[in-house]
Amino acid sequence: MPLQHAVLALLAARPAHGYELKTEFEQTVGDQWGGLNIGHLYQVLDRLSRDGLISSERQSQAVKPDRIVHQLTAAGRAELDRWLSEPTVQARGYRDDFFLKLMAAVQSGSADTLAGVLSRQRAHLLRELHSLAVARRATGLSAVEMLLITAAELHTRADLDLVDAAESSLSSEVLAVAAAAAVRGQRQEADAETPDEKRAL
Fold first, then answer.
1. Is 25 within the bounds of a domain?
2. Are residues 65 and 7 in the same domain?
3. DSSP 87-117
4. Banded pLDDT at 155 (limits 50, 70, 90)
5. Claim to verify: residue 81 and residue 117 sit in the same structural domain
6. Does the pTM exceed 0.85?
7. Quick one: which of 110, 103, 97 has its CA closest to 175?
8. Is residue 196 very low, low, confident or very high in pLDDT (cuts 50, 70, 90)?
9. How many helices (H) and strands (E) are present in the chain, helices listed first?
10. Domain housing 162
11. Strand 67-72 and strand 16-17: pairing?
């Protein structure tokens, strides 16, 4: 799990307690990753401790409550080295809510519904690109933060290309679904006719 390994990487630099790790993580990767939930971090630390990848020691403080300081074990260092030595492999397939919306829009058989989904997605992505451009102009960004912004920009541009591709390729699909629905409707009407109505035809 990436967060577990990020914690191991931070502890490889020096021992630290929970809030130090949270602060260091957020300062290192910046806003593009998002904040780190302290409750989730403590769950990760518990798991790492159970797995023998870190050791934890309670330290008393004169004024504040005791704090628990964590440090990397030899097994933790080996796991961090193993993770760093392997390529990052994305999960097979591509799961994204946008594709489910495209499926729903196509199944509606409405060109207006599809156009609305694509238009709103395009507007959202353009706003995202603008906010990333603003973030890039911030002062004091680390090299990692700049790289995260670049990655976010590249992904957003790719998503915009996907919206364009959907616009050009799915319009005919919507028409086909609408035509099939019309044929089904005619058949259902025909099946619903009484024997007398059919004889009259």
1. yes
2. yes
3. PP-PPSS---HHHHHHHHHHHHT-HHHHHHH
4. very high
5. no
6. no
7. 110
8. low
9. 8, 3
10. 97-197
11. antiparallel
pLDDT digits (tens, 9 = 90+) for 38-88: 899 999 999 999 999 999 999 887 888 888 999 999 999 999 999 888 877
Question: Which one-letter DSSP state was computed for residue 138?
Answer: -
Long-range contacts of 111-118 (CB under 8 A, 24+ apart): 111/171, 111/174, 111/175, 111/178, 114/170, 114/171, 114/174, 118/163, 118/166, 118/167
Q: Which of 42, 26, 48, 35 is nearest to 145 (CA)?
A: 26
Residue with tokens 């030595």: 85
Do the beta carbons of residue 79 and residue 53 sit within 8 Å?
yes
Q: 102 and 192 share a domain?
A: yes
Within a domain: residue 164? Answer: yes
Is 72 in the same domain as 110?
A: no
Q: Do 41 and 14 fall within a single domain?
A: yes
